[in-house]
Amino acid sequence: MTKTEATAPRKRLFVTLMGVTCLIVVAVIFLAWWIPNRGLANIHPSLPHIVGIIMVTLCGIALLGTGLLVLTTALGRDIFLTRFMRLVVIKFLLPVIEFVGKLMGVDRDRIRQSFVAMNNSLVLSQRMKVKPDRILVLLPHCIQLADCEIKVTGDIHKCVQCGRCSIKGLVELGRKYAVDISVATGGTLARKVIVEKRPKLVLAVACERDLTSGIKDCYPLPVIGILNERPFGPCFNTFVDVAKVDAVLGELLEK
């Protein structure tokens, strides 16, 4: 797997909704100019033209920004101001896109899945190479079996390697790549771990909601998100495809 192939198909939804949102923004900008057009002319004959130029510029920025995001995602290359574009997507576009998706009857979790995939593409497009001691793998506590008597929160190496959950494979990855792996019981502890470890990049495993909020809270720190699998429902005996984590680490770490 390269460039997180497992999440690549899902980002199309976010790109589509982003395009629809862009068209809505352009329409709103046009109406904001067209409706009061006569009133502006009464104030000054040149005012409609001046406001029109401003509105056209805003529409051009919206269309250009959307086009650059789509190209960056499609080509997997940092074309122009990728970090700034991540800011726009994370802080401004996501709430609007979630609202537009709700109006269109799209499930919020599907939008969040697609957002995580889009974010991953933007981070990976920067072609970052990180030293093992500057990357943090962050796991949710629910990835350990609920009936396990040995709790690995705080120290994943307490795992006795029974192989009943994903922890065994993740511990092996930690040793293979010499990366720091932490298990957090919630968002507050996750933020505390990040502040203490001060990584250059975070590879986080979690559900759609937690990954989305984590990506937003951590900005500008780059976060790659991998969705956990929940055969028994949320926050209970979840697991992750260790091969996906392995592939991403292999792509991000300095050789």
Topology (elements, then pairings):
Blueprint: H1 11-34, H2 37-43, H3 47-75, H4 82-103, H5 108-124, E1 135-140, H6 167-177, E2 180-184, H7 187-197, E3 201-206, H8 208-218, E4 223-227, H9 242-252
Parallel strand pairs: 1-2, 1-3, 3-4
Based on the model shown, name its key terms:
four-stranded parallel β-sheet, 9 helices, 255 residues, alpha/beta, disordered N terminus, Rossmann fold, 4 strands, 9% strand
For the terminal residues, how far apart are their CA atoms? 18 Å
Mean pLDDT over all positions: 84
Per the principal axes of the C-alpha atoms, what is the gross shape? Answer: elongated
Question: Biggest sheet: strands side by side, in what order?
Answer: 2-1-3-4
> How large a portion of the residues is in β-strands, by DSSP E?
5-15%
DSSP summary, beta strand count: 4
The total domain count is: 2
Percent in helix: 55-70%
User: What is the count of helical runs?
Assistant: 9
Largest sheet: 4 strands, parallel
Q: Looking at CATH, which topology of the largest domain would you report?
A: Rossmann fold
List the helices and strands in order. HHHHHEHEHEHEH
Query: In the CATH hierarchy, what is the architecture of the largest domain at level 2?
Result: 3-Layer(aba) Sandwich
Extract low-pLDDT stretches.
1-9
Structural class: alpha/beta
Reading off the top of the CATH hierarchy, the class of the largest domain is best stated as Alpha Beta
Radius of gyration (CA) equals 22 Å
